[in-house]
Amino acid sequence: MAARVAIWVACVLVMVATCQGRLRVGYYHRKCPPAEYVVRDVVGKAVRQNPGVGAGIVRMFFHDCFVQGCDASVLLDPTPANPQPEKLGPPNFPSLRGFEVIDAAKSAVEKVCPGVVSCADIIAFAARDASFFLSGHRRPPGGGSAGRVSLANETLAFLPPPFFNLTQLVGSFQAKGLDVDDLVVLSGAHTIGRSHCSSFTDRLSPPSDMNPALATVLRAKCPANPNFTNDPTVVQDVVTPDAMDNQYYKNVLAKNVLFDSDAALLSSPPTAAKVAAFARGKWERSFARAMVKLGGIEVKTAANGEIRRMCRIVN
Ligand code: HEM
Ligand SMILES: *[C@@H]1O[C@H](CO)[C@@H](O)[C@H](O)[C@H]1NC(C)=O
Ligand SMILES: *[C@@H]1O[C@H](CO)[C@@H](O)[C@H](O)[C@H]1NC(C)=O
Ligand SMILES: *[C@@H]1O[C@H](CO)[C@@H](O)[C@H](O)[C@H]1NC(C)=O
User: Fold this and answer.
1) Where does this protein hold Ca(2+) 1 (predicted)?
2) Spacing, Cα 262 to ligand 4 middle (Å)
3) Assigned domain for 86 exists
């Protein structure tokens, strides 16, 4: 009963239309009623211990969905047959984190319902729950299966790098069926988590439109030429580093953001207006809705996916 109410509330929040489409919120409520709670429990414990892994999982969801759709292809370990899976692509390695939490959630779910819940949905639930624990928001739907294709080269092809300008960002989102509003809303995820210095050192010396005060702070924390063995991390949102809130948009307005891709949101009047609106008012609900849309990219069905027994290897 509680579950049904929760689903209903979620449906209203993510808009009824989405719930009635092919993405079924509460897909597992008949097939494996405890699934979502089991995942939430594991994620809650992990995030309380280290909020950073929550940020890692939110990013993991994005990186999974933008490459081969939301199919958990990002989780696959290298094998002799596929020595270069997505996981090892430059946007993911070594920065992507939270894999152990997904493993723990999957094994906990397998104990209660073996072979029912896909790894893709575990990432989606975990990203939702991580967002929830870091703020208070809603659920993306379940129902996708896991893919078998995972290629490192595709991470570079589809994941936008931090130096992209607005035109390029809009292009990479459009290629995945997301629009410019989704870009502005989802970029707000940079209100949590961290970045390695190598992702933004080019912006620390003039000419740069980074706030000079922030640039000074970062120059003190980052080597001039970071390399693989010397690449410290800094928080993305210096004001509320672990809170899923609209502070990101205030940071964008104040030019207190790390990447060109963040600053670029001010480079067109319509996106700048959106940034200003989110800086003033509510963002969380828009984010929840956009995360659901993100979760709908190139959804796999049983025909081209599978329920893996372990998320790191295909069955
Ligand atoms: C718009 C294009 C985007 C670009 C260019 C971008 C780029 C980046 C980069 C370079 C980092 C730092 C990685 C590192 O050096 O450790 C990062 C971190 C992060 N990104 Fe994005 N990102 C984008 C969109 C998104 C979206 C759509 C989401 C989720 C909805 C997201 C969530 C995150 C999170 C949560 C982190 C922190 C991860 C951690 O702490 O481990 N990003 N992003
Ligand atoms: C990635 O590499 C595979 C084979 O190694 C190739 O078939 C595929 O087209 C490449 N994808 C991209 C986006 O370059
Ligand atoms: C964005 O970058 C692309 C590729 O470098 C370039 O062709 C385009 O003119 C740039 N757009 C803007 C608005 O700067
Ligand atoms: C990385 O940079 C540090 C100094 O910043 C240097 O001591 C080290 O040799 C460099 N490592 C590599 C692998 O280039």
Assistant:
1) 64, 67, 69, 71, 73, 86
2) 29
3) yes
Query: What is the domain extent for residue 105?
Result: 2-13+21-159
Which residue bears the tokens 């790894």? Answer: 119
Protein residue closest via CA to atom 2 of ligand 3: 165
Give the residue whose CA is nearest to atom 4 of ligand 3.
168
Ligand 3: which atom is nearest the Cα of residue 267?
13
Query: Residue 172 belongs to a domain with what CATH number?
Result: 1.10.420.10
Indicate whether 57 pLDDT > 60.
yes
Query: What is the per-residue pLDDT across 133-172, written as a single tens digit (0 to 9) for each?
Result: 998 544 444 545 667 888 998 999 999 999 999 999 999 9
Distance 205 CA to ligand 4 centre (A): 20
Asked if 111 and 104 count as a contact pair (C-beta separation under 8 A), the reply is no
Positions at the binding site for heme b: 190
Report whether residue 216 contacts ligand 4, using a CB cutoff of 6 Å. no
Task: Collect all residues with Cβ–Cβ distance below 8 Å to 258 and sequence separation of at least 6.
Answer: 162, 190, 195, 199, 200, 203, 210, 218, 234, 236
63 is catalytic: yes
Residue 10's pLDDT is 42
Locate the DSSP E strands across the chain.
194-196, 233-235
